[in-house]
Design goal:
heterodimer, A: 227 residues, 10 helices, 77% helix, disordered N terminus, B: eight-stranded antiparallel sheet, 3 helices, elongated
């Protein structure tokens, strides 16, 4: 991928969160799964993969996490931490039927993108002189991303015999969708890094990432207030 | 390689990111998504109507408005089905209650489907239920109620909506009800 001119990239990235509402499971999908009784591993796996693959907030956070990871083992380590975090709260939240506000959780998820972008810009070290543990941050924000997944699934999964199967299927689907998305992001990122302009554009790219995170968070806070 | 960005540049970039995000939210996204248009930009750009889902807010129905009220007795371990003939998209409002408890299954059979095929929308047990139902397809739509107790009970059903006929299925027999125009003004 040839890096796009900066101005165009800024427009494209900032326009993405406008579609933020689109990653809710569609009404037709929801109506379909609500008619299912018992376990339906295929349907829930598909929904999990679709939710992750089309969830711009999850994808932007992943982009922020691997932005400056150059070694394969680091990528595996951080993605594993993120996966452990979101799987834990996804399973616990749905199983124990935690009732958390989806808008507020999604606002925190938006802010996780802001946090990661600020970290990538060197903000914590340069501005505040602190060095927060990047692994802990990915794990903790992973917990919030899992809560967000749980609020979606809770609306659609029946509390019947099929709950555990459907829940685990959804989780497996989420990981498959994440793997697929991660592969595509990584291909683009590896290509981008080969260009000399990467170093100069990295700061601007993270500023745009931060902007997108603010838009996501603001949109969800507005949803909390108005919806 | 250039020197890493200093604190001023990082703070300036962060403030710009926040300002751009706020501007996008206030001028475009909030007017379009929630109909909140503090600067009037949503109106100017024709975005404000998007918040209201007009396509699903109002549905007109050509069929006549009907009201149905029926009492269905159920001996111990007896079951009955009562279903309305509805066109795809037709809406009913319903309310039923039992002087006891029933096992029920709200379901629908599309026209032309294989015999015995039904789509189930709610299967549960309880003393009452109420709500609205929009027929996803043309066919017969309604309830199966079963008395699992040892004393006789009655189901009282009230329905309003757009239908012309109903069927009652009991002990392998079919009773048809026509809601003719006579009852209507």
């Amino acid at each position: 991928m040839r890096p796009a001119p900066r101005r165009f990239a800024a427009f494209a990235l900032c326009a993405l969160p406008a579609a933020a509402g689109a990653h809710d499971l569609s009404a037709a999908n929801a109506a379909f799964v609500q008619t299912l009784d018992g376990s339906a591993p295929g349907a829930f796996m598909y929904l999990g993969a679709k939710h992750m693959f089309t969830g711009i907030d999850h994808l932007l956070f992943l982009l922020g996490v691997i932005f400056f990871l150059y070694r394969g083992r680091d990528i595996v380590l951080y993605v594993t931490l993120f996966t452990a975090g979101h799987s834990l709260t996804l399973i616990l939240g749905v199983w124990a039927d935690w009732r958390v506000d989806a808008h507020l959780v999604d606002a925190v998820i938006g802010l996780s993108v802001v946090y990661k972008a600020f970290e990538n810009m060197g903000g914590f070290r340069t501005v505040f002189g602190i060095d927060p543990d990047t692994r802990a941050a990915v794990l903790v924000f992973g917990l919030f991303h899992g809560l967000g997944l749980a609020t979606r699934l809770q609306d659609y999964v029946g509390r019947d015999d099929g709950l555990l199967t459907n829940l685990l299927s959804f989780n497996v689907g989420v990981e498959l969708g994440q793997l697929l998305a991660l592969g595509l992001i990584l291909i683009g990122l590896l290509e981008w890094r080969r260009h000399r302009a990467f170093a100069a554009q990295a700061f601007a790219a993270n500023s745009i990432l931060m902007c997108a995170g603010f838009v996501l968070a603001g949109n969800q806070l507005a949803g909390y207030v108005f919806a | 390689m250039k020197a890493p960005p200093g604190p001023r540049r990082i703070l300036l970039a962060s403030a710009t990111a926040l300002a751009v995000a706020a501007a996008l939210l206030l001028t475009l996204i909030l007017p379009a998504e929630y109909g909140w248009d503090p600067l009037g930009t949503g109106r100017a750009l024709g975005l404000t109507g998007m918040a209201q889902d007009q396509a699903t807010a109002l549905h007109r129905h050509a069929r006549r408005w009907r009201e149905d009220s029926i009492t269905l007795p159920l001996a111990p371990f007896e079951s009955v089905e009562y279903k309305y003939r509805l066109d795809a998209g037709a809406v009913i409002l319903y309310r039923w209650r039992v002087d006891g408890e029933v096992v029920y299954d709200m379901h629908a059979e599309p026209d032309g489907a294989a015999p015995g095929y039904a789509e189930s929308f709610a299967r549960s047990r309880g003393p009452a239920d109420s709500g609205s139902y929009t027929a996803p397809f043309t066919g017969i739509h309604g309830w199966f109620w079963q008395n699992r107790g040892e004393r006789p009970i009655t189901v009282q059903l009230e329905t309003r909506g757009f239908f012309d006929s109903a069927v009652e299925l009991r002990d392998g027999r079919v009773f048809e009800y026509e809601f003719g125009t006579a009852a209507q003004p």
